[in-house]
Each structure stands twice: as structure tokens, then as C-alpha cells.
Design brief:
about 80 residues; mainly alpha; about 0% strand
């Protein structure tokens, strides 16, 4: 049996990465959308450009969401 050293206070235990690339892209797009919304709230922002960028992000999120759903469905498919 393998023995691991005791954890010190402040050590961070990392979980294994279980997100698919599509899920990572969806998370990144959500963060980008939030940043653009914050920029839109700024009175000095170029509102027309930010609105266009938000529309693009919205389209990309919908597109990526289809891939996330496909990833989830492929994991839960019964073996043939």
C-alpha cells in the first residue's frame, strides 16, 4: 500500500480534471459574457460594439451547448 505524506495546512488537494473540452469552452464563454456585461455597464463603453460582441458570444454559447449535451449523452449511452 502506498503511503502519502500528511497534508500541511494550506496544501490544496486538486480533483482530477473531469470536464470535457466543450465544457471548458462553455465555461470560458460564460466568463467572457459576464466580462462583456460588466463592460456594457460602464458609461464609457462602446455600447454598439459591446452589443455585437454579446450577440456573438450568445451564438457561440448556443453552439457549444450542443456539443456539451452530445458529450454528456455519449457518456451515458448503454454499451452496444
Amino acid at each position: 500500500m502506498k503511503h502519502y505524506p500528511p497534508h500541511r495546512k494550506g496544501d490544496v488537494k486538486r480533483m482530477p480534471n473531469i470536464l470535457s473540452p466543450a465544457q471548458k469552452a462553455a465555461n470560458a464563454l460564460r466568463r467572457a459574457e459576464k466580462a462583456l456585461q460588466n463592460w456594457q455597464d460602464d458609461p464609457n463603453s462602446p455600447n454598439n460594439d459591446v452589443d455585437k460582441m454579446l450577440a456573438i458570444i450568445h451564438d457561440l454559447r448556443n453552439w457549444v451547448q450542443g456539443h456539451v449535451i452530445a458529450d454528456i449523452e455519449s457518456v451515458h449511452e448503454p454499451p452496444a
